[in-house]
Amino acid sequence: MKDIPPRYNPKDHEESIYSKWENNSLFHAEPDPSRKPFTITIPPPNVTGILHMGHALNNTLQDILIRWKRMQGSASLWVPGTDHAGIATQNVVERNLREKGITRQGLGREKFVEEVWKWREKYGNTIIMQLKRLGASCDWERTRFTMDKGLSEAVLEAFVQLYNKGLIYRGNYIINWCPRCQTALSDEEAPHQDVEGKLYYILYPFKEGEGVVVATTRPETMLGDVAVAVNPKDRRYKKLIGKKLILPIVGKEINIIADDFVDKKFGTGAVKVTPAHDPNDFEMAKRHNLEPITVMGPDGRMNENAGRFNGLDRFEARKLIVAELEEKKLLIKIEKHDHAVGHCYRCHTVIEPYLSLQWFVRMKPLAEPAIEAVRSGKIKFHPKRWTKVYLNWMENIKDWCISRQIWWGHRLPVYYCQKCNAVIVSKVTPEKCQKCGSVELKQDEDVLDTWFSSWLWPFSTLGWPEKTKDMEYFYPTSVLVTAPEILFFWVARMIMSGKEFIKEIPFSDVYIHGTVRDATGKKMSKSLGNIIDPLEIIDGFGADALRFSIVSITSAGQDVFLSKEKFEIGRNFANKIWNASRFVLMN
Description:
The chain has 587 residues and is an alpha/beta fold.
């Protein structure tokens, strides 16, 4: 035993040890009535992703739990898999094709989707291989993908069930629209960021006389104004309600209306009503039977309803409209105005509130059982403070816009009869219209929001909608380990779907860990150049050193402040274990 070196070199051992574990199926679990089950489903990383320190922390915590329960004798299953990440993956493939001079539109839908599948086959399992390097003891024989056959079947089943119950509907509403990705986004996908903006005070004149000054942050949308609104209790404007104003630049007459929604303290207390480009104005217009006018296209450029501004980018149009108002002496003043503006969570483009025909899920009926599951203590959040955050969001939940105007994803199982306009929702392509018998049917072009497949993850990965042995034994799962930023995207929706489709909670405990930050407290990002690459740490210090270090400096639910020097803790500890073993074996 004298040939044991005095210093541990992880490169000499980690790969061979892990290979032995995997080749001997030591991570595989089967239903066993003689043992208690313990199940974790991995938060599925995007197929576009590579391992980062957030993944390293998240998966190390899961691995600690699964190995602990495995050693205690439980039938411990850790289900791995990846998410197809609709918008993100389509963006990556489109960018790759553009470098070759090819566009998505030039290829057509079928061939483009083929290209995405090719990309997924080549790069889609990169993060799985990296998780193995981290030492994750997942049951790799059960690896799932949100667009594999079984999970796609689950998505269709869920859609049809909800539609038949009246919980999925189609309607014209104001949604969050990304002009760059050219798709609708849910509220959670359009996070608000504080920006330094401007408040423009514009005079809307009467035919004769001065007029009313209106304050707005978005002058370019005034081309779609259908009224000016004031609060009925505002004494300044009471005598003006019902009078007509001239819409500047456009020149048409619009009425002054009264609505309780108007905040008397904002700006001048008089607001423009642009129902096609603002959610509050949309609701106001419905109350007053006003017809919306859309003045912008899906690419963020002004459309034919914008007159001579047709074709201009929305922000370029804003500059020209402001200049024209100034020239006509209708621009009274401009004030600095800091406010929160929605941005696309993928490309960070400023989103546009946009009137669009989309598909939605009614969320309040689904939220009620999921609220009760947490209130009653059947599901516990760790740390407890997240319970209040969860309940606050669930009690104020809005309907979920689930249709996306992209090509990569689960296509809506909706068909339209070209003869009688009937709408058919079916898991399989119908042969003819159930109403008129026509064979002229066209499938909806949209795909479902990525989260519509991942909210089914705890049970779709176990075989639902089929009644499998895995479902009977391993569901509900035991614990979910996740980051706080997907509490609403994913965690809350999984609880709702579990209660709706299986009539059982999907897990009993939710452990929410903190965010990994650099030593100064800044969130790690490529743009800041403060990222620490886990693979680089594994190469230099070893997977055990990385895992031990990151967990030893992590407090429950608190953010983790990380620097490369911190990994010396784990390296030194591994070396001490090595030398203790060396001492025993040599004596």
